[in-house]
Amino acid sequence: MSANGLGFTLLGTDGRARRGRLSTAHGMVETPAFMPVGTAATVKALTPDMVAATGSAMVLANTYHLMLRPGAERIARLGGLHEFMRWPGPILTDSGGFQVMSLAALRSIDEDWVEFRSHIDGARHRLSPERAVEIQHLLDADITMVLDECTPFPAEPADVALAMRRSLRWAERCRHAFRERPGYGLFGIVQGGVDADLRAESAAGLQAIGFDGYAVGGLAVGEGQAMMFRVLEATVPQLAPQRPRYLMGVGKPDDLVGAVGRGIDLFDCVIPTRSGRTGQAFTRFGPINLRNARHADDPRPLDESVPCPASRDYTRAYLHHLVRSGEILGAILLTWHNIAYYQALMAGMRTAIAEGRFAAFAAAFAADQTRGDIDAL
To answer: Do 176 and 191 share a structural domain?
Structure first.
């Protein structure tokens, strides 16, 4: 670990796929890695011990939501976010930039800050770049994200350019506000929609400022996988190879495999937890919907290849019953399995990169997903 900031070691490459190790104040993360989303200081439906048992090394929490409830100063008084949520490992906190887009009806924006009208009680909160960094410091996040302006898809090119350049100015303000400490780091966020030139301008501007890592934001907002991959192919090679690269808010299993193959190191997404609460399970042979009647008499487990009790020890028939009955245990078990499946997928990719067979791994993954699940006899 460097005297200031995070430590990142690039252990090897296979094509554009990268195998690395990220060192933080609260432990190491082997990359490529997937971070379960713990928006409000909890990965929904799971205890911290269950999250850790899946192989998850780092989780994500949300600056905007924790600012509103219970408040960053309160969490700081109670010992910081790690102590508050009983998660001893690394935590990355997003900055509220996504809420600039998703809560557009509840906010106003200018050069100085974003003013939100709380979706909880209507109270007004101003989030400036400096305040976003301060909140994440109070939370004791290992990785702080700059405040940015995320644009939807589609959007007018002039609006995308305006938001990207404002995000660059905010990134510089975040850099000045950030307090350097061993094991803690600040990531810049590349914006620019699906415009390769704007993405290049953003990447160059951020690297001129200098950050501990670089995220690609503003994707998985409706542009589709093919366009997302094209943006990554144009953008990722422009990012400093000695720094970690993070694709925000992505995605489904095939998104992860495709993005790792294009040089991404870190991911987060609500899909595995949200799907678990709505009856969907991801498996090596593709996703399955446990609400479907065909599972009512199926004695098989979800996926014996995944090292998790929820994946191996419960029949699909029982899980179908829990989901159709609206039982809480169904959401718990499917969420546990989905996070474990994602972590098994990431572990498989790390091994494949280290052994120089990532292309074969990706081809086998695609073939299994295309094959689909096999009906019980």
So the answer is: yes
